[in-house]
Amino acid sequence: MIASIAKTVVVVIVLIQACMVGCHGKDDKVRYDGFQVWRLKCRNLNCDLPTITKHQQVDVFLNLPWSYDVFVSPGVQDNFRVVLESFNVSHTVIQYDVQRMIDKQWNISQSRPNSLGRLKFNEYHSLHEIERWMRKVTRDNKDIVQLVDIGKSYEGRRLRALKIGTASTSGKPGIWIQAGVHAREWISHASALYLANQLITNYVIDPLVTELLSRFDWYILPVLNPDGYVYTWTKDRLWRKTRSINAGTDCVGVDGNRNYGYKWGGAGSIDDPCDNEYRGPFPNSEPEIYSVVNFLTRSSTTFKAFLDLHSYSQLWLYPWCYTEEQTPLVDHEKQDYLARLAVETIEGVHGMHYTAGSYGSTMYVSPGASPDWAYGELGITYSYTVELRDQGKYGFLLPESEILPTSEELYAAVRTMGKYLLHEQS
User: Which spans in 216-269 are helix H?
Assistant: First the structure.
């Protein structure tokens, strides 16, 4: 099905001469006044959009076979339009003023009183509010919740996961769910929090959840990249990477989802520190990634599933990421079956369509991505990247009205996944 869809990819166009990634406003925040998101489409089969945009000072954010969205600065729009026409490429504007969308989101979040340890799961929350809630929910549910420190970020912030499950003397298999390695993908953080809350509040009430917490330990890390997440709240809403300093350059940060050790640095990886997909100077160079790798590797728990939450594009992806080739057939069939079960469940909630497939062939080749490490190094067959809503109308700036339905879809899919794993265990 995917091969028959018109070829497209997601990219960001940046005007180098004026503002590399937007301009700074009076409050020293990066602004994107007049920036637009265009969706490009080839009018002929021989069109190579990555090559065309590569020579237009572009920074690739995301590749998809059916959607090629570009973030265009106001100063380059006229010239870029001419370039596209010369290559017989059409475009549609899908976001007319990115800064206006950012301002609307920011004004809503700033107008609220402090949450005092209580979260509304249809709102975005700061790191301080998230951590306060995690401490409170742990205190209030000591029988099934523990707060686990797995390490620290580059800037010294703690990486904290919620361990949710009933006590056991024999040890239980685990399920690991992480979110927010890419800082600007706020819906991933929000959905992870909703998921944790549903597991906690539905214990005893929902027989299936009760069994899931009795049979598995659920580890949920809602903010894998806290430095980047804070930066999206204080400086640049569209920041993606970590905040580590790169030697020999002013360009900051590493793409955490290119930094895992399995097949790190392979074909398709990027060694330019100024690129949004920079792989880092060496495998697990980022304290955040090292902390996850160290914790899971040293854990006595046998993990049965690994989910890494992202946005956007509505995909449920499994290994391999570093190549378009499939995993061994026996594992591929299991991975694909559960992925399709998950997206069918999602569609049954609000009618939203997600696509299931292998990462490298459905999306693009990404050496050093988390599912490959979880599957290739730890042997977790059910290792997935989940790209949440939407498909580009709002992109990384998904409004709060979309949080609850997105989270409900994810929870339903994870619940289905848990039920499947229970059956497989029995």
Answer: 226-234
Average pLDDT rounded to a whole number, residues 146-170: 96
Q: Looking at the predicted structure, is the pLDDT value of residue 4 above 80?
A: no
Do residues 407 and 177 make contact, with C-beta atoms less than 8 angstroms apart? no
Residue-wise pLDDT for 170-208, tens only, equals 889 999 999 999 999 999 999 999 999 999 999 999 999
Q: Long-range contacts made by residues 393-397, C-beta under 8 angstroms, separation at least 24?
A: 393/94, 393/95, 394/95, 394/101, 394/312, 395/37, 395/69, 395/95, 395/311, 395/312, 396/184, 396/185, 396/186, 396/238, 396/311, 396/312, 397/95, 397/98, 397/101, 397/102, 397/105, 397/237
Strand order in the sheet with 158-164: 145-152, 158-164, 217-221, 174-179, 303-311, 382-388, 315-318, 355-358
Phi, psi of 196 (to 5 degrees): -60, -45
Q: Please, is 111 exposed, middle or buried when counting C-beta atoms within 10 Å of its C-beta (0-12, 13-18, 19+)?
A: exposed
Q: Per residue in 61-79, pLDDT tens?
A: 566 777 788 888 888 888 8
Q: State how far the Cα of 233 lies from the Cα of 333, in Å rounded to an integer.
A: 41
- Residue 22 near residue 236, CB atoms below 8 Å: yes
Q: Which secondary-structure segment (H or E) carries 30?
A: strand 30-31
Cis peptide before 97 (omega within 30 of 0): no
pLDDT digits (tens, 9 = 90+) for 364-390: 899 999 999 999 999 999 999 999 999
SS3 call for 282: coil
Q: Among the residues of 145-239, which ranges form H helices?
A: 186-201, 207-215, 226-234
Higher pLDDT, 347 or 25: 347
Give residues with Cβ within 8 angstroms of 93, minimum separation 6: 36, 37, 38, 39
Looking at residue 264, what DSSP letter applies? Answer: T
Q: CA 413, CA 346: separation in Å to the nearest integer?
A: 6
Token pair belonging to 276: 């949004």
Q: Which secondary-structure segment (H or E) carries 162?
A: strand 158-164
Please give the positions annotated as active site. 387
| Residue 192: half-sphere exposure toward Cβ, Cα within 13 Å | 33
What are the pLDDT digits (tens) for 84-95? Answer: 999 999 999 999
Stretch among 82-91, 107-116, 163-172, 393-402 having the lowest mean pLDDT: 107-116
CA angle 306–310–312, rounded 5-degree value = 140
C-alpha to C-alpha distance for 223 and 183, rounded to whole angstroms: 9
Name the 3-class secondary structure at 388.
Answer: strand
